[in-house]
C-alpha cells in the first residue's frame, strides 16, 4: 500500500482523536454535557452531525452497491429517505427540541417519554431502552462490517496479524478508533467529528463521480449511457421491474427517520428552537448532494467497470475499487478516510445513544438512583465500550451485507419509535398505555416479519419491507388504545400536565 494512503489516513485518525481530547476538556463534566453537549450545538454542526450519523457506510457502500448491481431503480430508496428526512426536520425537530427541555430537561428519548406519560414511566423507559440497545447493537454491527470490508478489499495484503483475518482486523481497528474519541469526548466529540466527517463524505461523493465519468477510461455521459444500455437496456430506468410493493418498500425507508434515536437526538441538542430551520436547510442541502453522488458512484461505476473489464466480486466494494484504481495515493487515502468517516460517524452516534440509555434508563433507574454526575459519565463510558464489543461479535461474519443489517435495524427503530414520537409531540389525546402499546407492537411486528421471511417473499409474491406493517401496527395501537383509555385517570393526568 502506497505511503501516501497511510499519510492521509494517519492525518484523519489524528484529527478524530484530537477532537475527542478537545471535547473531553470542553464538555464532559456532567451527564447533560456528555450526552447532549450541553444543548449547545450550532445549526451547521447539528445539521451535518444528523446527516453523517444517519448515512453511515450505507451511503458509500450499500447504496452504490445496490445501484451497481440492479440499476437506477434502486434510487427510490434515496428518494424516500430524502423526503422522510425533510418531513422529520419540519414535524419532529422543533417540537422535540422544545418539549424535551420543557419536560424536566430530558436527556434521552426514553426519559422524555417517561416524563411525557408519567403514569407509564417505568414501562416506557424500560421497554424503549431495551429496544434501543438491542437494535443499536445490530445497527452498529453494520458499520463495523463496512470497516471490515474496507480493510479486506484495500489493505488485505498488509494487515493480516497473527491468526486474525484482514476482515477481523478491520472490524476491531474501526471500533478502536471510534472508542478512542467517543469514550473520551462524549456527545460533543461525536458531533464535531460528525461535522468534519460529513464534509469529507460530501467532497468524496463529488470528486469520485466526476473522475469516473470524465477521467481516463470514463468516456463521459454519452459513452457511459451507451455502455449501460449494452449491459441492460433498462439499466437507467427508474421503473424497470418495479412492482407496487417494491416501490412501496423502497420509498417507505423514509418513514424510519421519525424513530431513529441517534438522528433525532441531534434535534434535542440544537442551541435554540429558532435555529432549527437554519439547520434544516444546511442538512437537506448536504443530504441532496451526497445522495446524488452515491447514486452516480453506483451507476457510472458500473459503466466504468464494464468498459475497462474490471471484475468487482462484491458490488458493495465498488467505491473502494475505484478509489484504489483511479487516484493518486494521497487522494485515495482521503477517499478511504471518507468511507471510514461514513462508518465511524454513525457508529459513534449509535454507541453514545445506547450508552445513554444504559446509564439513564437502567443504571440510574434501577441500580443507583442517587449516582453523581461524575459516576454517571463513567458508567456512560463503560457502556459505550460494552455495546461496541457486542456489535463487533455480531459483525464477525465476513459474508454480512451492510444494506441488509441496516435495513433491519432501521425498520426496527422506525416502527417502534416513529409513530410514538410523532404522536407524542402532536396529539394531546395520546395516553401512556397507548404509547407502550405502540412501542411494543411496532418492534414485535418487525421482529416477527423478519423471522417469517416476509420481507423477502410475502404470500407467494415479492417481499414487503418490514417497516410498513410495523409502522401501521404501531400507529393503530397508539390510536386505538389511547382512545380506549381517554376517560381513565391516567389520561386526565397526562392532559392536565
TrEMBL record:
Protein name, UniProt field: Sodium/proline symporter
Record flagged with keyword Disulfide bond: no
Chain ranges passing through the membrane: 6-25, 75-93, 122-147, 167-192, 199-222, 242-265, 286-305, 317-343, 378-396, 402-423, 435-452, 464-484
Main location: membrane
KW Lipid metabolism (keyword) present: no
InterPro entries, sorted: Na/Glc_symporter_sf, Na/Pro_symporter, Na/solute_symporter, Na/solute_symporter_CS, Sodium:Solute_Symporter
Compartments (UniProt record): Cell inner membrane; Cell membrane
Protein's job: Catalyzes the sodium-dependent uptake of extracellular L-proline.
Native source organism of the sequence: Salinisphaera dokdonensis CL-ES53
Domain of life: Bacteria
Keywords from the named record: Amino-acid transport, Cell inner membrane, Cell membrane, Ion transport, Membrane, Sodium, Sodium transport, Symport, Transmembrane, Transmembrane helix, Transport
Similarity comment text for this entry: Belongs to the sodium:solute symporter (SSF) (TC 2.A.21) family.
Lineage, highest ranks first: Bacteria, Pseudomonadati, Pseudomonadota, Gammaproteobacteria, Salinisphaerales
Pfam family, one: SSF
Catalysed reactions, as listed in the record: L-proline(in) + Na(+)(in) = L-proline(out) + Na(+)(out)
Record membrane topology: Multi-pass membrane protein
Amino acid at each position: 500500500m502506497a505511503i501516501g494512503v497511510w499519510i492521509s489516513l494517519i492525518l484523519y485518525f489524528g484529527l478524530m482523536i484530537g477532537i475527542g481530547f478537545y471535547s473531553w476538556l470542553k464538555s464532559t463534566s456532567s451527564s447533560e454535557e456528555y450526552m447532549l453537549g450541553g444543548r449547545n450545538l450550532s445549526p451547521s454542526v447539528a445539521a451535518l452531525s444528523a446527516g453523517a450519523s444517519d448515512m453511515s457506510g450505507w451511503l458509500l457502500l450499500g447504496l452504490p452497491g445496490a445501484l451497481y448491481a440492479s440499476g437506477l431503480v434502486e434510487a427510490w430508496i434515496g428518494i424516500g429517505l430524502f423526503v422522510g428526512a425533510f418531513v422529520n426536520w419540519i414535524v419532529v425537530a422543533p417540537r422535540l427540541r422544545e418539549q424535551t427541555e420543557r419536560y424536566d430537561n430530558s436527556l434521552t428519548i426514553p426519559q422524555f417519554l417517561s416524563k411525557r406519560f408519567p403514569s407509564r414511566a417505568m414501562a416506557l423507559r424500560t421497554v424503549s431502552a431495551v429496544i434501543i440497545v438491542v437494535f443499536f447493537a445490530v445497527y452498529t454491527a453494520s458499520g463495523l462490517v463496512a470497516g471490515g470490508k474496507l480493510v479486506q478489499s484495500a489493505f488485505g495484503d498488509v494487515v493480516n496479524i497473527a491468526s486474525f483475518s484482514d476482515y477481523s482486523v478491520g472490524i476491531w481497528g474501526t471500533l478502536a478508533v471510534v472508542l478512542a474519541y467517543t469514550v473520551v469526548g462524549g456527545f460533543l466529540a461525536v458531533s464535531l467529528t460528525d461535522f468534519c466527517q460529513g464534509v469529507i463524505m460530501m467532497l468524496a461523493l463529488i470528486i469520485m463521480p466526476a473522475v469516473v465519468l470524465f477521467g481516463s477510461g470514463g468516456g463521459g455521459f454519452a459513452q457511459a449511457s451507451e455502455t449501460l444500455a449494452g449491459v441492460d437496456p433498462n439499466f437507467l430506468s427508474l421503473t424497470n421491474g418495479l412492482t407496487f410493493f417494491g416501490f412501496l418498500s423502497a420509498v417507505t425507508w423514509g418513514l424510519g427517520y421519525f424513530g431513529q434515536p441517534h438522528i433525532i437526538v441531534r434535534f434535542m441538542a440544537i442551541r435554540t428552537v429558532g435555529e432549527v430551520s437554519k439547520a434544516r436547510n444546511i442538512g437537506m442541502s448536504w443530504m441532496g448532494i451526497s445522495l446524488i453522488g452515491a447514486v452516480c458512484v453506483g451507476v457510472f461505476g458500473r459503466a466504468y467497470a464494464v468498459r475497462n473489464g474490471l471484475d468487482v466480486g462484491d458490488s458493495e466494494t465498488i467505491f473502494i475499487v475505484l478509489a484504489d484504481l483511479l487516484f493518486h495515493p494521497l487522494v485515495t487515502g482521503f477517499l478511504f478516510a471518507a468511507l471510514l468517516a461514513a462508518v465511524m460517524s454513525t457508529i459513534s452516534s449509535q454507541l453514545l445513544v445506547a450508552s445513554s440509555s444504559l446509564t439513564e434508563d437502567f443504571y440510574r433507574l434501577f441500580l443507583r438512583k442517587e449516582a453523581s454526575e461524575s459516576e454517571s459519565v463513567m458508567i456512560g463510558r463503560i457502556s459505550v465500550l460494552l455495546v461496541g464489543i457486542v456489535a463487533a461479535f455480531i459483525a464477525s461474519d465476513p459474508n454480512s451485507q451492510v444494506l441488509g443489517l441496516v435495513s433491519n435495524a432501521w425498520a426496527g427503530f422506525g416502527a417502534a419509535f416513529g409513530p410514538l414520537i410523532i404522536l407524542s409531540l402532536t396529539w394531546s389525546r395520546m395516553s401512556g398505555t397507548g404509547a407502550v402499546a405502540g412501542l411494543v407492537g411496532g418492534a414485535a411486528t418487525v421482529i416477527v416479519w423478519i423471522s417469517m421471511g416476509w420481507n423477502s417473499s410475502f404470500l407467494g409474491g415479492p417481499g414487503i419491507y418490514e417497516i410498513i406493517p410495523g409502522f401501521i401496527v404501531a400507529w393503530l395501537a397508539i390510536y386505538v388504545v389511547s382512545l380506549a383509555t381517554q376517560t381513565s385517570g391516567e389520561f386526565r393526568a397526562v392532559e392536565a400536565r
